[in-house]
Structures are given as structure tokens and as C-alpha cells.
Amino acid sequence: MEILQLKNLIKLYKLAGGGTFEALKGINASFEAGELVAIVGESGSGKSTLMNLIGGLDSDFSGEILYRGKNLRDYNAKELSDYHKKSIGFIFQNFNLIPHLNLVENVALAMTLSNVDKETREKRAKELLAQVGLTDHLYKKPDQISGGQKQRVAIARALINDPDVIIADEPTGALDAETTDTVLDLIKDIARSGKLVLMVTHSDRVAAHCTRVIRIDNGQLISDENFGGFKVTEKAADFKEPKIKNMSLYNAIRMAFLNMRAKLGRNALVAFGTSIGIMAVILMLSLGRGVTNYIQSTMNSYTNPNVTEVHKQSMMPAANSTSTSQAEISQMQQNNMAALTGSSSESNFTQSDLKKLQKIKHVDSLETGYTTLSLGTNSVEYGSKSATIMTLQTMSANIIKSSIVSGKAPGADEILLDKGTADILSKNIVGKNVTLKLMIDGKQVKKTFKVSGTYEQQGSNFSTVIMRYQDLAALYQANGQTLSPNVVYLYTKNKDNTEKIKEQVKKLGFSGSMQETMTEMFTQMMDIISYVLAAIAAVSLVVSAIMILVVLNISVVERTREIGVLKALGARRKDIRRIFVSEAFLIGLSSGLLGVGMTAVLQVLINNFTSAKFDVNVVSMTFNYALAGILISVIISMIAGLLPANRASKLDPVEALRKE
Ligand SMILES: Nc1ncnc2c1ncn2[C@@H]1O[C@H](COP(=O)(O)OP(=O)(O)OP(=O)(O)O)[C@@H](O)[C@H]1O
């Protein structure tokens, strides 16, 4: 039965300087199953050119190569890939085994590329290795066996998908006489099993074993001696053809992993280099977050988490304010001063303001208050001792019980003093009567109050008096003034709602407490600083990307022949690209994981140090930072890997296989 027909086959090589070279000048021949054909001829006569064309490694020809009636030139990429996988098996003079794969993996390669399951392909590979007498060496690497054994592995590899045609380019060229005989016997058996074997040889001794000898000279077929093909005696072992599919992503990653393991030291170094950049980025972000958290928790530790403090005007420039004009800044300072000293009616809440605030979702109760800042006009006296009061404020739910360090919250005609002020007056001031001197509408007003307790300040060291709103209102009334609230406290039962309430308050045009505004400004500043630092650290990732690109490029050059073999076995461009991109992916993934790991270790070390020294954990890595670090690493590596991967996928198989 005719398997292969060559009709007026012409091959022109384009020459670099222009012009062409005719390597094959109209070859005509046809081949049947069971033939063992020796292709002989002088060096440069065109034997390899012919084999490359028949093997589908070079589709640039004129005339026809009909495989089972269909011209190879009309094959699309998928058909060509299937042709390599199913119909053709290659045996090379220099074996071309993949050094980092063991014998079973080498033999099974075409099946791996066809996505045949592991069990089936390993079983088949072991059977074939047994047929060529290598059962004892299944898991050795190619450099652990002899030349003859290598060629037997290559023969097993060529047979894995039970192809119709075997192309052997000087298969015994690198072997001694004895090993040549063993290999020739195997090749004869292949032809006997009903395959067509085309074997290029320089040796007459080898040609004498063949059933047909074709002589080529200067690109022409000059003789064709046919002694009659083998009578097909043995049918190939009952081989059930597995379904040929495209290589799976999993297999591409697995192959990439095996490649990487072969050059572990180099890849580990690259991954380590990249991971330092990733670590720097995550560390900067985590540090920023840690510091911000610390500031926020310090600021908030004295306030009640269920309470939102509301002011009518901002006491600080808005955190996101972009105004720069002098006039605007001056106006803002005026407003702030007025708000701080409570002297402006604009900072008082109207009934409609209170209604709006009360209506905010999740607000369970609303408490009005008053707070004022004075510079030397207010004071508190006890006996001969006197202390200046800077802040006067009314009692609210915002003053949490735990901040009261002695005594209790102020009741009627009682005041709460900050600990510092209390200590100036007396060590045992709680329960004693003191005289409070206040400036109300330009007049000094005196009244006696009992000190109900002392409390710890919230971050500031201002001397502070806290009393009930009613008492202060009464004091104002007694002096012909009406006290209007200039601070409102919104209470919610569930503290998880406080953030939402704060957002609503801002939306309605009110502002939060001074601490909050300051914290916000600080947080924003810290965010900017940590992002800038992270961005600077990220510059090193560009260096990493270049490093990965260079290493993968070197890898492509080193593995050019291997890529040629993969293509001869049916790997599509896409498969080759995938293998290399997968390598980049693995480098990226390991760098990312390593970077996160190193940050975690540093986090423990730095936090141990800072918590021992300052009682603060300054590094706070989140899951999102870690994830972002890994993702950035993977993306950068894969982008860097695209170029080399593309280069590898575009390699011409004929040239790749010829590479020394
Ligand atoms: N890429 C190419 N560009 C131009 N000419 C080429 C190219 N490849 C091969 N040739 C030429 O084509 C002719 C046939 O080369 P081929 O490699 O097929 O010879 P061969 O018979 O296999 O030789 P050998 O026995 O030495 O391997 C040679 O003259 C060679 O110089």
C-alpha cells in the first residue's frame, strides 16, 4: 500500500545575498508500508533537505509530497502538528534526547504534547523501552546511559504514537559497529511491523540491510534499487491509538517546572533577586499602614467608639483642601479661631441642623454639647493655687468611663478636671470645692463647683474642665446669655455603624472632631509617603523584569535544539510559547511567595524590636498586600517572559535541529 508519494519535488533555498539555490531538482518516488529505504549520496547532495520536507519540518517547496494522498503543503497548522504527532517519527544521528527528562518522560514526550493522560503514556513508554531492552534504566537521565542506549530511547520515542513513517537521519552515524547492529535490528523490526522507514546513511554496510536504496546526487534522484519490502510479519502490538489533543496548560507548566528544576541555581537566584523588589514594595505599604494604624488607635483610644463628634465648621483645613490663595487661608484661620474659641455664632448648631443629624441612619440618640478654647481668660482656683484652663467642654458620651482615672463623671454643680490640672491644684482634689472663673461675653463670672473626678487627656495636653451642659447653660443664663450647642455627639448602639455615620456627617457638610481631621490629614500624608516609597521600590522590579528577560533569552538559546525536537514531535508554536511563559510564571510566583515570606519574617523581627522599644507594631502586612505583591510579581515576570517565549515559538525547526 502506498503511503508516500513525491512528485516533481523541488526545493529552492533563498540565499542571503539574493538569488536562490536549488537543493532538490524534481524528485519523483513513491513508498509503501514495510519498506526500509536507505537514502544515500554525497555530502551536500540534498538528503537532509529531502527528509526535512517529508517530515513536515519545512513546508516551503514546489511539487507534491502526498501523504496518504494529501499534499503536505496544503496542511494547516493543526494538521501539520497532528502529522508530526501521529504520522511521523524522527530518529536523529545525535539522538536529541531532552537532558533533564528521564527516559520514560523522553519517550512519552509526543504523548505529553498530545495531552494523553499520565498513566496511559507512561505505560506505553515503558512497553516501548522494554521492547528496545531498556527496562532496567527507565528513570535514568540521558547522560547516564551509553550512545547505543540513547539511540534506542530515541527509537522508542519515535514509535510512541505508532506512526506510519519513520525518518532516521544517519541513526547509526555516532555508533560503533556492534551497537550499530543492535540499532539496525531494531529499525528492521520497525519496518517489518508495517511501517515505512526512510533512513539517511553514508555507510554501504548499513545500506546493505535495507530493502531499497535510493541514491541522490546534486539534488537529483540518480538510482532507485528496490529489493522488495519486508513481508509485514508482526503487526504492531495491539496499540490503541489515544485521542490526540492539544497540550494542556497543566502539562506546559509541568514541563516548565522540569526545565526550571534543571537550572535550579540560576532560576533560584533570579527569583531571589525579584523577590527583594517585591519585599520592598510590600514592606513600604505595610509600614505605612502600621504607622497609620498606630496613630489612629492612639487618637481614638480615648474616645467612645459608638460616638461620632460633629462640628459645624471644620477646625482644620480640609484634609483634601487644595486651596492655596493667601486670602482663603487667612479666612480659614479666622473661621478656625472663631470656632475654637466658640466666639462665632456660625459654629452653633441650629434646630434644622440637629434634625438633619438626628435623621442619619443608625443614629440612636443625639447629644448636644459646647466646647470652647480660651487663652488665659478662664481659670480654676483651689485655696491659694490657681490653674489656667484652656478647654472648657460639656460632658458627653464621648468621654469614656475608662478615661476617668479617679472619681466619677460630673453631676449637678460638679466638674471633671484633667489629671494634669488637678495635680497642680492638689494631689487629693477629688471631692473638694474649687472656684471656676470664666469669661462670658467679656465679663468674668465666678462659681464654686465640686471636683467629681479626674480624667486622662485624649492626646493633647490642654488643661480642661468638663461640666454638664445644663450647668454651663445655667451659668450663661444667669449672665444674660443663651448657650447654643457648638458640638453634637451622635450615638449608635452598634459601633460598626460609626464609620457610616461619619461619612454621612461629612456628606451633609459638617465636620468631625479636631483629632479626626488631624488623623485624616496624617493618614493621607502617610498614604502618600508609603505609596511614593513603594513606587520607588517598584523601580527595582523593572531591573528584575530585565533580568528575567535575559535569563529566559539565554534559556531559549541553550535549548534551541530541544525546541526543534519538540516541534518535530508536534509541538505547536502556542505550546512552545506556553512552556516559556509558564517558566516566567513560575519564576514570578516563586519570587512573589518568597517576597511575601521575607516580608513576613521582617515583620516579626521589626515588630519585635519596635514593640519592645516603643510598645508599637509598625509593620502591618495585610492579605491584600501579600496578594498584590504576588500578582505584581507574576504579571511582571510573565510580561518579561513574553519576548523570549515568542522568540522560541518562532524558531524554525530545521535550523533549530541543526544548531550545534
Ligand atoms: N538553509 C539553506 N540555505 C541555503 N542552502 C542550503 C540550506 N540548507 C542546505 N543548503 C544547501 O542545500 C544542499 C543540500 O543540503 P543538505 O543538507 O540537504 O545535504 P545532505 O545531503 O544532507 O548533506 P550531509 O550528508 O552533509 O548532511 C547543500 O548544498 C547545502 O549547502
From TrEMBL:
State the superkingdom.
Answer: Bacteria
Read off the Gene3D superfamilies from this record. Answer: P-loop containing nucleotide triphosphate hydrolases (3.40.50.300)
What is stated as this protein's family in its record? Belongs to the ABC transporter superfamily. Macrolide exporter (TC 3.A.1.122) family.
In this chain the ABC transporter domain maps to 4-244
Assigned keywords, A-Z? Amino-acid transport, ATP-binding, Cell inner membrane, Cell membrane, Membrane, Nucleotide-binding, Transmembrane, Transmembrane helix, Transport
Q: Could you tell me which SMART domains the record lists for this protein? A: AAA
The name of this protein is ABC transporter, ATP-binding protein
Q: Name one GO cellular component term.
A: membrane protein complex
For biological process, the GO terms are:
amino acid transport
Species lineage, top-down? Answer: Bacteria, Bacillati, Bacillota, Bacilli, Lactobacillales
How is this protein positioned relative to the membrane?
A: Multi-pass membrane protein
Which terms does the record give in the GO molecular function aspect? Answer: ATP binding; ATP hydrolysis activity; transmembrane transporter activity
Record field: transmembrane: 268-288, 528-557, 578-605, 625-643
Where in or outside the cell is it found?
A: Cell inner membrane
Tell whether S-adenosyl-L-methionine is among the UniProt keywords: no
For this protein, the record's PROSITE patterns field holds:
ABC_TRANSPORTER_1 (PS00211), ABC_TRANSPORTER_2 (PS50893)
Keyword ATP-binding on entry: yes
